[in-house]
Here is the input.
Amino acid sequence: MIPCWQEPFIQIGHTVLYIFGILLVAATVLGMALFVRRAERHFKEGRRAVYIVAVAVPVMALGAHLMYCIVDDRTALLEFRGISSFGAILGGAVVLGVFAVIYRGSPAPSWFWFDAASYTGVFAAIVARSGCFLAHDHLGSRTSFWISVNCLDGPRFDLALFELIFLVILVVVLTRIQRGPRAWADGVVFGISALSYGSFRFGVEFFRDQATKHSGLTVEQWAALILVCGSLFAFPWGRDDPPATPRSTDFRRRATGDRPIAPGSGSRSGALCPRVPRGGICGRLRSRWTRPCRRSP
Here is the structure.
């Protein structure tokens, strides 16, 4: 059982900086930096990524606050206290959709922006959820489970801790996909991220204590269902030969072990990929959603 503690803080003169706010700002800066770096590294589109970030960050902040006001405290609308992660996610998705249409003629495919945002956003979310855990900001219902926090009137689920564990697992899976020997179609990374995160949040909300429900589900669960449904459009169900996003030289070296790269292979990694069996549904989907690399002459 995890003991309860006071939220750590740093006092500078008469100003008190709490760990949650510090890590939230750090997560925002980290996510922006990784997103811009990824766009510049893959397509030399760093400037356009900066434009997206400049619009997305205030929209996500506004969406996070509005979602908090709808779910938790409607009187906090003009005080700007309290945020909700789902509001930020949905706001960011809207901004990405608008810019994907605006940048349709750019070298970067439309789904690349969603893939880049979801992949880099997981790293930022890990930092932000660490602040939630240190502040015990998302305590759930009472329990006798051994992974619980002994706060308030007894042991309770710590939903931030559960999400932190999930995000670490998710970032490992996404990194394995990104650095694997096959080039996944654009949109698959976002689809996996949104589908898995939405499903996780839908389930973990059942452990929330005294949550207001609408038609049997909380607002967060309805938002999770929207995210899950939206993720299904990211998978290339009807694309036979999806375009592959080029990858960096560092990723190529890791994937191939400095072996020769086939010129014009169209692969994201450029690796000499093994044959993927088509047996079973997983094998068929992987063969359909990835581009096999051509062997060098």
Remarks:
- Confidence is low (pLDDT under 50) at residues 240-278, 292-297.
- DSSP finds nine helices and ten strands in the chain.
